[in-house]
Amino acid sequence: MTGPGAAVRWSEPSGTPPGGVTRIFRRDRTLRLPQRKWPVQARACATVDAILDATAQLLESGRPTSTNAIAERAGVSIGTLYQYFDGRDAVVAALSRRLREALAVAVGEAAIRARREPRHAGLRRIVEAALAGDIRRPRLAATLDRLEDELALDADHTVVQAALTASLAGYLAHHGCDAADRADALADDLCAVARALTDAARRRGEAAGDPLVTRITRTLLALSA
């Protein structure tokens, strides 16, 4: 996830070009509100990046996110936007997938690094990765959560949740927190608890920061003991 005002470009360690999610959401996967066209060339990827960046900035600022507003902010024609997306909802869905996939990859990488650390430090590293978007761009995270519910992107959420659960389950099994055949269930429970604590903090108006990270980490440690 990215900091305030920063671009939301996708990057992979392998150097796969941006312009479309590439690890979890595949072109041939049945998606709700899919992209009309998946960019391949660098220039096309940059165009899609600009459209998604513009959408994120508009959502974060609270300004209207019509296709005309998005195209104007991105510096592209409305015709160019419609080459890749059917409309505003499809753009928002693509932005959601972009950021959620980046979240899943970041948590996966954190979980691998955390295996070399004591349990408390390792779990904290994973929680920090999971909350990065809420911490750095809280308004965008909250707005996207609401829009994702409105757009019924449940299938997308299921795919990302499976990736998050697998990463955490691997970490738990490595540290012997549970038998390997039960690690998936424990990881799923811990993810649900972390999400519930994050949602409760957001409803109270509490900013996602060190106190929330500490509280979630302590809760997950207690539940996985």
Automatic annotation (TrEMBL):
Identify the stretch(es) annotated as Disordered.
Answer: 1-21
Q: Transcription: present as a keyword of the record?
A: yes
Please give the DNA-binding region boundaries: 66-85
The UniProt entry, under InterPro entries, shows: Homeodomain-like_sf, HTH-type_TetR-like_transc_reg, HTH_TetR
Q: Which domain of life is it from?
A: Bacteria
| Presence of the UniProt keyword Transcription regulation in the record | yes
The UniProt keyword set, sorted, is: DNA-binding, Transcription, Transcription regulation
Single GO molecular function: DNA-binding transcription factor activity
- One Pfam family named in its UniProt record: TetR_N
Gene3D superfamilies from the entry? Tetracycline Repressor, domain 2
Which parts form a coiled-coil structure per UniProt? none
- Give every HTH tetR-type domain span: 45-103
Q: What is this protein called?
A: TetR/AcrR family transcriptional regulator
Give the organism, scientific name: Methylobacterium currus
